[in-house]
């Protein structure tokens, strides 16, 4: 048995984090990096990726990649394998948000959300999995949402996409866990960030509603999600697969 804090170490591992240039993606990448992983972040905007890598620290790197270009997934994985090393941990975090009443959400808008979250994540996971299965070791994480767990108005496309993650996690876990590949999801609650601060600053009723249904009575921090990712990616979570872990201060079970 690995002793002490070493059980959470990711030293020698290569982690790929999509949407790692901002917000939760950057926080997750930073947490994996602090645990010892060689982190590669991907996204569409190179300026944001470069700034994020500078903040994460030495050894982190980035590659520009558009998840919706599903045919390019295998090429990205091959390039990372050649330049950094085989991918041990994939974090499917990238996504787009759409806040709009369901009746006003068009087919094209719905498809764009699903393309990034669901089809893009599937293509990249499918490209990474053969190597993990061949090595009999690997972890895949999907960053889900409170919208995966209960109804939130005006986010029908986003909710559908994030809910799809949970079905993917369970199916992939049953298929791949016998081959040493664990697949899990994290469902962040309301996390403090520049975006959430801006959104809630002008809407005290919404902030009160969020905090009122959160037993811990506060917003979470980005690093709370990051350390959950470290746990699930490390040997500490070696017997955990097919689950969705809420990191939400109790919001999903609160009243």
Structural overview:
Helix content is 44%, strand content 15%. Strands 3-2-1-4-5-6-7 form a seven-stranded parallel beta sheet, sandwiched between helices. With 255 residues, the protein is of the alpha/beta class. The chain contains eight helices and seven strands, in the order βαβαβαβαβαβαααβ. The chain starts with 13 loop residues before the first strand and ends in an 8-residue tail after the last strand. It has one domain: NAD(P)-binding Rossmann-like Domain (Rossmann fold, 3-Layer(aba) Sandwich), CATH 3.40.50. α1 packs across α8 and α4 runs parallel beside α5. α1 links the parallel β1 and β2. The model has no long low-confidence stretch (mean pLDDT 94).
Main attributes of the structure:
alpha/beta; about 260 residues; Rossmann fold; 7 strands; seven-stranded parallel sheet
β content, as a range? 5-15%
Mean pLDDT: 94
The major β-sheet equals: 7 strands, parallel
The 3D shape can be described as globular
- Any idea of the CATH class? Alpha Beta
Any idea how many domains? 1
The strand order across the widest sheet is 3-2-1-4-5-6-7
CATH architectural type: 3-Layer(aba) Sandwich
Please give the alpha-carbon distance between the first and last residues. Answer: 40 Å
Judged by helices, strands and strand pairing, the structural class is alpha/beta
DSSP helix count? Answer: 8
Q: Count all strands and give the number.
A: 7
Q: Kindly state the percentage of residues in helix.
A: 40-55%
Low-pLDDT stretches are none
